[in-house]
């Protein structure tokens, strides 16, 4: 194993050993705290252009399998772990994680003090990073290269991750509704969750026009998660406003939540180090109950947590907030059929506490159907 | 939801004595509960019979009752204190059973007291197997096929349906007591028979076998708003078939994907809701098929458990503390996470490290016992270790066990055990199975072969193989360089292991390592994988880049704990360490605790200013001291409070330049070295029993003849009474030598004069170099020859004259001076025919310190810590820490009784081990009785330890010849109290000579009589007897006595094995007959 280096924008360098593919890779350094679900994390399009540092030390123990992928490929720009497993032990496994990473050309680093990196990112915020694996470069040269790489703020990444062509995920059992899911980086667990509730999901490219969407006669529109900065999504925001005007039931998660928020006129901002984990407590203001949820977001919505706000689409309110840091985690319109959450009700990976939100979406479509 | 203001006072039920399956983790949880409640301004009433607990310190409750935990006594306390609520979910199965008892006798309803935490219905649903299976089915889970049985006939026919092997699980018992796996009919008869007896409802469950499946446990918490979180997942390395308490376990689960883990999580949520645990913690166990992933829900505990304590220490999420807050009405989101300060408790801890727990066994104390691990828990303690990788944590855990043979070894010649032999032996789970696995892989077994033999997940096997590979690399390396040493250290190798591989000394490796600047860093347990800043310095070591030890300005005192609980070194020593920490914090020192026992109060991150969860080896301790020295001034290290473990480190620490506070290592050495200690005694004019050291059989005989029989013989190289025997003649001496030891000049045998029928006396005292303070003089109830830890004792001493007391005080002072003690000293004396003999002195905190402190209200351990840091006894008296007198005064009469684990062990043939006391300690815990008279106090101690003494009925008496004369008086008294006496022929005849008429019963060896007269064993099994008095003839399993005693243990009939115990029991019975044993709180006693 050759040496490898994880080099941060601010000049801090962690030395480790190469793992999986060698070479160089760049992205935004973020840490993810889930103890399970590395396969889902790797294949989650929201991690596009990010180098993910896993805080759990042992990664790869259960290998990879066909069923748990969240998309067709690994999206992370790089992967930093402490102790990758040299064997795979799980009855569902189809292969080793390292081989999968090599096959997909993912540059990784192992044997680094992942806790020290995490503490650094926590204190200084997410920043640019490079992994240099088996590269013969000076420390200075590596830092200079990292500083030349693009930053996350202002990044438009949706085109990279969105499906080029629409596809349909059939409803399980009797079909109740048709939903157009705007693919901003959608995970497989989302259409699956909807399909289990009798929803036929048409996953559509992010740049599908309002007319394209309406052409499938959707009962509702779903705005998916995805990578990048929500402030550069004006076209999609505009489309969402059209949908709001059309009174189509809307449900957004994560990036989709930020887009809905922007459509309502709120701004978004970058969090210092984001929320990336599957243990995040969120308070549902209406029930006063806490749900433990899966998060993966570096940006958040600026909206008033207390009280009712008004928008051009009528009144609205923040429905959920983070108990860790009071970040807005969900909102709904009171006079239009639209709501969104900042986190992942589809889990994959993570707890299923928030799965009820899909039911809420189905209810919303039912209500809307009755009204029409 | 804010707290329930209607609750103004709470009765907290403790867990009683330390027994296998229920240890000091419940002191940890109970102490947290008491603290939380008092901080809320709630009046706390506590009942716990265990004096060695922190929770029974008077400052932790408003009214502390050291009384038996039975519904009867609890009702008396309720009647007196009228609490608003009872909290029974933090005192283990004992408290839960007592609470159900209170419900069943109508006490709760009568006094209008509500159960908080879990109500009776929820307890029923969680614990009653039939109800629980229905719940599992209702929520869509699967249970293993099973059949409930109430009789042996039902068991036998159920086994036909389920096919052998079948698992037997009695209802309402703890620690898997009475459970086991039966492979055929005869095993089923034996295991299910015991199970039916142990179950308070005579109910056992027979289950299809899921041996070899993967085993998991989830710790779940729920609040009254129905918020549920999973605190921790625990994976057992030992697959199904070994009790969780006896399994090596890992947190978090290592071999599940998220999809599979979420299935367990979802089931857990559904189950806790359906069972209806309103608030608090519970744990749920699962089995997962390794090839198909089929999930079986095994069981749940609707209460805080041993695993909760482990999970709390493993995650930094204090389950008991939070469960208590939830019980009084708070919701999870209203409770702050202590460690981060900014985030709430309504989250799921995430770990960026690996935790390994290993059980600590003491099979050497029960040489007859079957060493196979089954579904009945047999371990007496556990060690936990934290590392940044599994290997690191595993190897640290193994050395934390403090067993020379526990850590992996890498012998250069591999011929010792063949691969086949190892594969065969590892197929049967025993204490050292993992070592066998490692050795097997070391000698060339493949991972697959080992997997087939053990069903241990291949991931773990591969980790062990990687450790072996690193050892091979180390052995082959041309020299130990930076990379190879770093690699080995990060896999958890100790300097000693590296030294052994390289043929060096541990010192050489340490010096080389320090020269290369390879030292551990200290990471923090913070519940959140560093997502938020941690404010609680709860550290563990790892060989990595960045350390998190913060600088400090206040001087630190480092306290070494006592490591895993074992027989002879348990909670009593943790008690002293905790007291030292509390007191020195109060005096504005920064206290630093080092310990590796997850069950204890000392490893609560709240106890000391800093906590290092580390093995107690010289290497690990020196590194912590080094790290703390870099952080700020270190006054020194206290080694005298944690028992033998830290004492044995003192000399090495001092050699490495560390300041030992209190008694010096030289003084410790002097007290332990017989020659030097003997000359000191002689110089001071004190008497010790004569003794000699024999290196041949003939020498042993010569010595025995010189000093006279009986003699106490033991191999000189073992400690703690192991292998010790009392022999009465030449032939048994010869027998001992040929049986018990290889006598050689290198391994001599110690032959001591045994003081037959002497009174044994235990003294705890403080000495500051000038002044002596006598903490307590305890008189043993059993005569000399029974290990002091197993003997009941009473304070104040009942039979000593004032002159004798003074003689003891003067002798104590002389010894303290002679040894040069600074702090605590424990001395054992024997008084025989008016002569005071010194048996041994230990210049450290003893097992009896907490008992004496409870009996007198004087906090000896606190005072010892102060003396160690330079305060004099005179100053402590001025401060009020010590009373202004020469000695402490006991309040009332206090009896300490030992609790023995006979019912846990069986021989390989399935029969019980002999329940007889001897010079080797075998008790796991103790209880205390406190009352105005000896009889009442003794009766209470017996009720607490073994269940009630009978106040009427039939008593069986069979005494050894040497004991018969001492049995006359108590037998006569018993008869006068209305008991019917039944004796074996010899005893009956002797009693008849002394004018006591008794009925006769045949010995077992005599067999049933011509007309069907029954034998003693048949009589016991018939259930007609209420009390059994049986003293053993010499040692060994003399058939008759052994059968009688094991039958008594199996039937749970009180069985007394000494005449002194017999006399005390009679006094206790007399007190019982007089009627009501009252209850009185410690606070009242101390008024």
SSE topology:
The complex is a heterodimer of chains A (372) and B (1087).
Chain A: E1 3-8, E2 13-20, E3 23-32, H1 38-42, E4 50-54, E5 58-59, E6 78-81, E7 83-84, H2 97-103, E8 107-110, H3 114-124, E9 127-133, H4 139-148, H5 158-161, E10 167-169, E11 177-183, H6 189-195, E12 199-205, H7 210-215, E13 220-223, H8 234-245, E14 250-253, H9 255-263, E15 267-284, E16 289-302, E17 308-311, E18 314-322, E19 328-333, E20 338-341, H10 356-371
Parallel strand pairs in A: 3-4, 4-6, 5-7, 6-8, 11-12, 11-13, 13-14, 14-20
Antiparallel strand pairs in A: 1-2, 1-9, 2-8, 3-9, 10-12, 15-16, 15-18, 17-18, 18-19, 19-20
Chain B: E1 9-13, H1 25-39, E2 43-47, E3 63-65, H2 71-81, E4 85-87, H3 92-104, H4 107-111, E5 114-116, H5 120-127, H6 129-138, E6 146-149, H7 152-162, E7 166-170, E8 180-182, H8 185-198, E9 204-208, E10 214-222, E11 228-236, E12 249-251, H9 258-275, E13 280-288, E14 295-301, H10 306-315, H11 319-327, E15 354-360, E16 381-387, H12 390-400, H13 419-426, H14 433-442, H15 447-454, H16 458-476, H17 482-490, H18 495-502, H19 506-515, E17 521-524, E18 538-542, E19 556-560, H20 571-586, E20 590-595, E21 610-613, H21 618-631, E22 634-638, H22 644-655, E23 660-661, H23 665-672, H24 674-683, E24 691-694, H25 697-707, E25 711-715, E26 725-727, H26 730-740, E27 749-753, E28 759-767, E29 772-780, E30 793-795, H27 802-819, E31 823-832, E32 835-842, H28 849-856, H29 860-868, H30 873-879, E33 893-899, E34 925-931, H31 934-946, E35 954-958, H32 964-976, E36 980-983, H33 985-993, E37 999-1000, H34 1016-1021, E38 1027-1030, H35 1039-1051, E39 1055-1056, H36 1059-1073, H37 1082-1085
Parallel strand pairs in B: 1-2, 1-4, 2-3, 4-5, 18-21, 19-20, 19-22, 20-21, 22-23, 35-36, 35-38, 36-37, 38-39
Antiparallel strand pairs in B: 6-9, 7-8, 7-9, 10-11, 10-13, 11-12, 12-15, 13-14, 15-16, 17-18, 24-27, 25-26, 25-27, 28-29, 28-31, 29-30, 30-33, 31-32, 33-34
Helix pairs in contact in B: 1-11, 2-3, 5-6, 7-8, 13-14, 14-16, 15-16, 16-17, 18-19, 20-29, 25-26, 31-36, 32-36
């Amino acid at each position: 194993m050759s040496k490898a280096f994880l080099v941060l924008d601010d000049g801090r360098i962690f030395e480790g050993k190469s793992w999986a593919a060698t070479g160089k890779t760049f992205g935004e350094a973020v840490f993810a705290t889930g103890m399970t679900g590395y396969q889902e994390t790797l294949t989650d399009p929201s991690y596009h252009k990010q180098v993910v540092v896993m805080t759990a030390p042992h990664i790869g123990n259960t290998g990879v399998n066909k069923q748990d992928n969240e998309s067709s490929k690994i999206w992370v720009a790089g992967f930093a772990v402490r102790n990758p497993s040299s064997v795979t032990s799980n009855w569902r496994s189809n292969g080793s994680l390292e081989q999968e990473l090599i096959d997909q050309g993912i540059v990784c680093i192992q044997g680094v003090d992942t806790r020290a990196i995490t503490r650094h990112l926590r204190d200084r915020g997410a920043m640019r990073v490079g992994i240099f694996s088996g590269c013969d470069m000076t420390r200075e040269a590596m830092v200079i290269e990292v500083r030349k790489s693009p930053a996350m703020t202002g990044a438009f990444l949706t085109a990279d991750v969105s499906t080029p062509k629409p596809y349909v995920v059939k409803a399980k059992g009797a079909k109740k509704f048709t939903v157009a899911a705007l693919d901003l980086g959608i995970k497989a667990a989302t259409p699956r969750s909807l399909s289990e509730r009798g929803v036929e999901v048409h996953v559509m490219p992010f740049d599908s026009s309002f007319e394209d969407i309406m052409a499938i006669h959707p009962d509702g529109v779903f705005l998916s998660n995805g990578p990048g900065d929500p402030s550069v999504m004006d076209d999609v925001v505009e489309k969402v406003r059209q949908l709001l005007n059309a009174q189509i039931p809307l449900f957004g998660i994560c990036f989709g939540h930020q887009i809905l928020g922007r459509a309502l006129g709120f701004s978004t901002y970058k969090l210092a180090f984001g929320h990336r984990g599957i243990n995040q407590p969120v308070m549902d203001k209406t029930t006063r109950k806490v749900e433990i949820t899966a998060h993966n977001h570096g940006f958040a919505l600026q909206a008033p947590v207390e009280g009712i706000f008004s928008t051009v689409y009528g009144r609205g309110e923040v429905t959920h907030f983070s108990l860790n840091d009071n970040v807005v985690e969900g909102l709904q319109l009171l006079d239009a059929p639209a709501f969104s959450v900042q986190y992942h009700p589809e889990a994959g990976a993570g707890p299923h506490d928030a799965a009820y939100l899909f039911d809420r979406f189905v209810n919303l479509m039912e209500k809307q159907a009755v009204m029409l | 939801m804010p707290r329930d203001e209607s609750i103004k006072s709470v009765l907290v039920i403790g867990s009683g004595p330390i027994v296998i399956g229920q240890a000091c983790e419940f002191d940890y949880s109970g102490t947290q509960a008491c603290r939380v409640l008092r901080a809320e301004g709630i009046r706390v009433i506590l009942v716990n019979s265990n004096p060695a607990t922190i929770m029974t310190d008077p400052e932790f409750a408003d009214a502390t009752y050291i009384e038996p935990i039975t519904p009867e006594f609890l009702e008396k306390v309720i009647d007196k204190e009228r609490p608003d609520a009872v909290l029974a979910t933090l005192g283990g199965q004992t408290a839960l059973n007592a609470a159900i008892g209170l419900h069943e006798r109508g006490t709760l309803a009568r006094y209008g007291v509500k159960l908080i935490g879990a109500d009776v219905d929820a307890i029923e649903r969680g614990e009653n197997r039939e109800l629980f299976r229905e719940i599992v089915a209702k929520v869509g889970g699967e249970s293993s096929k099973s059949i409930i049985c109430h009789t042996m006939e039902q068991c036998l026919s159920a086994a036909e349906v389920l096919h052998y092997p079948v698992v037997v699980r009695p209802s309402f018992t703890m620690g898997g007591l009475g459970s086991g796996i039966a492979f055929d009919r005869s095993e089923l008869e034996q295991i299910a028979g015991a199970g039916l007896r142990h179950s308070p409802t005579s109910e056992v469950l027979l289950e299809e076998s899921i041996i070899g499946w993967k085993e998991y446990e989830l710790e779940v918490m729920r609040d009254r708003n129905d918020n549920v979180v999973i605190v921790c997942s625990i994976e057992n390395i030992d697959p199904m078939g070994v009790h969780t308490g006896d399994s090596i376990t890992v947190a978090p689960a290592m071999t599940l994907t998220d999809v599979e883990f979420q299935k367990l999580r979802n089931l857990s949520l559904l189950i806790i809701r359906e069972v209806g645990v309103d608030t608090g913690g519970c744990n749920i166990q699962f089995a997962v098929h390794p090839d198909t992933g089929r999930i079986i829900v095994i069981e749940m505990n609707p209460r805080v458990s041993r695993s909760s304590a482990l999970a709390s220490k493993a995650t930094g999420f204090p389950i008991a503390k939070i469960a208590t807050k939830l019980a009084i009405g708070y919701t999870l989101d209203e409770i702050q996470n202590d460690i981060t300060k900014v985030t709430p408790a309504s989250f799921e801890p995430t770990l960026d490290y690996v935790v390994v727990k290993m059980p600590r066994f003491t099979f050497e104390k029960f040489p007859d016992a079957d060493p196979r691990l089954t579904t009945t828990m047999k371990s007496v303690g556990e060690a936990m270790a934290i590392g940044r990788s599994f290997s690191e944590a595993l190897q640290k855990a193994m050395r934390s066990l403090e067993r020379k043979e526990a850590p992996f070894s890498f012998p250069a010649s591999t011929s010792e055990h063949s691969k086949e032999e190892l594969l065969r032996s590892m197929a049967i789970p025993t204490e050292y199975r993992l070592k066998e696995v490692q050795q097997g892989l070391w000698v060339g077994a493949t991972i697959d072969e080992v997997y087939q033999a053990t069903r241990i997940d291949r991931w773990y096997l591969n980790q062990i193989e990687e450790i072996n590979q690193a050892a091979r690399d180390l052995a082959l390396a041309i020299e130990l360089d930076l990379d190879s040493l770093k690699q080995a250290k990060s896999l958890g190798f100790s300097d000693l292991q590296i030294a052994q591989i390289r043929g060096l000394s541990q010192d050489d490796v340490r010096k080389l390592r320090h020269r290369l600047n390879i030292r551990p860093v200290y990471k923090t347990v913070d519940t959140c994988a560093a997502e938020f800043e941690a404010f609680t310095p709860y550290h563990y070591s790892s060989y990595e880049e960045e350390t998190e030890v913060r600088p400090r300005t206040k001087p630190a005192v480092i306290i070494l704990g006592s490591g895993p609980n074992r027989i002879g070194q348990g909670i009593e020593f943790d008690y002293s360490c905790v007291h030292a920490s509390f007191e020195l914090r109060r005096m504005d020192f920064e206290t630093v605790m080092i310990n590796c026992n997850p069950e204890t109060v000392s490893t609560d991150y709240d106890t000391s200013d800093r906590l290092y969860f580390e093995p107690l080896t010289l290497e690990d301790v020196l590194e912590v001291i080094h790290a703390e020295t870099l952080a700020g001034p270190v006054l020194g290290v206290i080694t005298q409070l944690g028992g033998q473990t830290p004492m044995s480190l003192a000399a090495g620490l001092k050699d490495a330049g560390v300041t030992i506070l209190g008694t010096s290592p030289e003084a410790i050495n002097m007290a332990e070295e017989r020659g030097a200690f003997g000359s000191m005694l002689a110089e001071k004019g004190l008497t010790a029993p004569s003794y000699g050291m024999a290196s041949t059989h003939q020498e042993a005989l010569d010595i025995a003849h010189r000093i006279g029989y009986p003699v106490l013989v033991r191999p000189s190289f073992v400690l703690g009474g192991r292998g010790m025997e009392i022999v009465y003649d030449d032939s048994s001496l010869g027998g001992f030598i040929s049986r018990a030891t290889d006598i050689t000049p290198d391994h001599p045998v110690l032959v001591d004069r045994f003081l037959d029928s002497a009174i044994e006396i235990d003294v705890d005292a403080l000495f500051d170099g000038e002044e002596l303070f006598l903490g307590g003089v305890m008189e043993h109830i059993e005569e000399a020859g029974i290990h002091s830890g197993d003997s009941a004792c009473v304070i104040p001493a009942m039979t000593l004259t004032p002159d004798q007391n003074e003689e003891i005080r003067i002798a104590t002072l002389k010894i303290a001076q002679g040894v040069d003690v600074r702090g605590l000293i424990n001395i054992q004396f024997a008084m025989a025919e008016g002569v005071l003999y010194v048996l041994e002195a230990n210049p450290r905190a003893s097992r009896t310190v907490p008992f004496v402190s409870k009996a007198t209200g004087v906090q000896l351990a606190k005072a010892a810590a102060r003396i160690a840091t330079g305060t004099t006894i005179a100053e402590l008296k001025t401060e009020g820490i010590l009373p202004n007198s020469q000695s402490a005064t006991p309040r009332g009469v206090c009896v300490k009784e030992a609790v023995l684990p006979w019912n846990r062990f069986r021989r390989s043939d399935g029969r019980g081990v002999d329940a007889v006391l001897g010079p080797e300690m075998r008790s796991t815990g103790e209880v205390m009785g406190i009352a105005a008279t000896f009889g009442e106090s003794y009766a209470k101690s017996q009720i607490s330890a073994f269940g009630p003494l009978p106040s009427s009925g039939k008593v069986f008496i069979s005494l050894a010849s040497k004991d018969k004369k001492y049995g006359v008086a108590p037998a006569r008294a018993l008869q006068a109290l209305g008991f019917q006496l039944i004796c074996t022929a010899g005893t009956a005849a002797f009693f008849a000579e002394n004018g006591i008429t008794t009925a006769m019963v045949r010995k077992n060896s005599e067999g049933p009589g011509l007309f069907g007269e029954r034998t003693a064993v048949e009589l016991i099994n018939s259930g007609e007897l209420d009390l059994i008095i049986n003293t053993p003839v010499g040692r060994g399993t003399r058939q008759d006595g052994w059968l009688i005693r094991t039958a008594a243990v199996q039937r749970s009939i009180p069985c007394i094995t000494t005449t002194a115990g017999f006399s005390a029991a009679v006094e206790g019975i007399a007190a019982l007959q007089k009627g009501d044993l009252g209850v009185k709180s410690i606070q009242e006693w101390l008024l």
